[in-house]
Design brief:
2 copies of one chain form a homodimer. Helix content of chain A is about 40%, strand content about 20%. Chain A is built from 9 helices and 11 strands. At the A-B interface, strand 5 and helix 5 of A face strand 5 and helix 5 of B. Chain B binds a DNA duplex (30 and 30 nucleotides) through helix 8.
DNA sequence: CGTTCCCTTGACACCGATCAACTCTGGTGG
DNA sequence: CCACCAGAGTTGATCGGTGTCAAGGGAACG
């Protein structure tokens, strides 16, 4: 598998203490949390994802309505699945972090109902939908792994619904940061309590259903309260307990049993 | 398959013009919208779901934390997957209508991360997780059908996120009614533009992330605007075009290609 | 060194929460 | 059949959280 990682992307998103060699290592780290991802599955994934793409911030990996001809695994960088509303609002409905595979359902149906856009410079491994389906149908534990990952994703979607419906802006932002931190940790991307957050405040706002202005005020308040520092695209959680309490965060949904 | 449908549930939720004989007919109607649900799949489902339960309004089908020992298909009645927040709020994260199968992921992992409660008198067919998994692994088109249904569910979850994040209460309520109407139509439960909505205004509020009081005001406004009548647990859409416009509704996500 | 995003802050308006009645409906028991 | 009662629906008054508009400052990049 020939695989160019542009130096800029590697610098931004890969852990710096011990640079990752295997571009799929984040995916494997997450998949291993389920109990079905064995050595055979690792080989399958490594064999399947033999392509690679590089996408700059603001560019689409997939556009709404696209015939979707590839399935991706993010190796570095972040992306967002979003929908545009008639009145001009944008809602981020899913945050895609290193190690995430999408859109898995292209296996059986290729239309994209919403777009996926790079939030910073991304590198993604690719495979064809048909190849993935064949692999799934051919290996029971790989099937179970994908079901497990799907279940996890649905848990994340439901948690977002609960947040948007019940929490105020302060708690919503806090909750999203808690989730990001936990997910990055599962992918092995948190070091010394610091991690990269390549989101603009506008991105953060669009994920939480608030305006950019209010996202800013909320972040300042979180900082004044000694819970969280988020500057220059790097985050540091000052008081993990306090932040989780403010958010009502319980990470169980990120590692379902 | 011996199968008692209590008369009360049948009266409330089954179409009255032509009472449904097959308790799984709603499920089959939905599953056939995907392109993989063939005659063999129908037989598999009929064979698998050989149990039945009856649950009264307010009772749980599954409790948060339950070891989940059965998978359900709602034959009549509605249920809701919800989460309780620390401060006492309740958010409905998924509305389960006749024909819906849940929790599919009990196939591979049996812990429930949130509860499922009957919204009115429900009848559900049941099968064991192990039996469902065996059937999935044994039939390719059945596998694809479940993936298709899962994709549809994720589309519904994402649409809820977009609504909660970007729309005001008026549009949110309108959107949920549009979605309910479309889903019931797919299950064959809309007759002459009328359909049963066994939700209290409080239920509707908890699904839309507003208070009961405000859900009431919104419904009155929708009625004054000539878009929707919702009284005595029955809904009638007066102006479908107007309602969809107010909601920014596009039903494509309910029948993904 | 200039341009372009992005971040930051203030003033004001409005949507929806909250609190507090009151009414209507359906079900239960006398 | 009627009386009662609990739950659900309805409405008004007030308050707070967020949106909106506007302006200026700072950081990144060519």
């Amino acid at each position: 598998m020939q695989f160019e990682v542009p130096p800029s992307a590697a610098r931004i998103s890969l852990p710096r203490a011990e640079p990752t060699v295997d571009p799929l290592s984040c995916f494997k780290a997450k998949a291993r949390l389920g109990e079905f991802f064995d050595g055979e599955c690792e080989e399958i994934v490594a064999r399947l994802f033999d392509g690679a793409v590089h996408v700059a911030r603001g560019e689409h990996l997939l556009r709404e309505g696209d015939e979707c001809s590839a399935i991706f695994v993010l190796c570095s960088g972040w992306a967002a699945r979003y929908v545009h509303l008639a009145e001009g609002g944008r809602q981020i409905v899913e945050l895609l972090l290193p190690g995430d595979m999408f859109p898995v359902h292209a296996m059986i149906a290729s239309d994209m109902d919403d777009g996926i856009m790079a939030l910073n410079s991304c590198v993604a491994a690719t495979c064809s939908p048909a190849a993935l389906e064949a692999a799934v149908l051919g290996n029971t534990n790989f099937t179970r792994t994908l079901w497990w990952l799907t279940r996890r994703e649905k848990g994340i979607l439901r948690a977002w619904i609960a947040n948007l419906g019940q929490l105020n802006a302060y708690a919503r932002v806090a909750h999203l940061i808690c989730e990001i931190s936990a997910r990055l940790a599962q992918a092995g991307l948190v070091h010394d309590g610091h991690f990269e957050v390549p989101l603009t405040q506008e991105d953060l706002a669009d994920a939480n259903g608030v305006t950019g202005v209010h996202a800013n005020r909320t972040l300042r308040q979180l900082s004044r309260d000694g819970l969280l520092e988020l500057r220059h695209k790097r985050a540091r959680i000052m008081d993990e307990d306090g932040l989780q309490r403010a958010a009502g965060f319980d990470g169980a949904y990120l590692n379902p049993g």
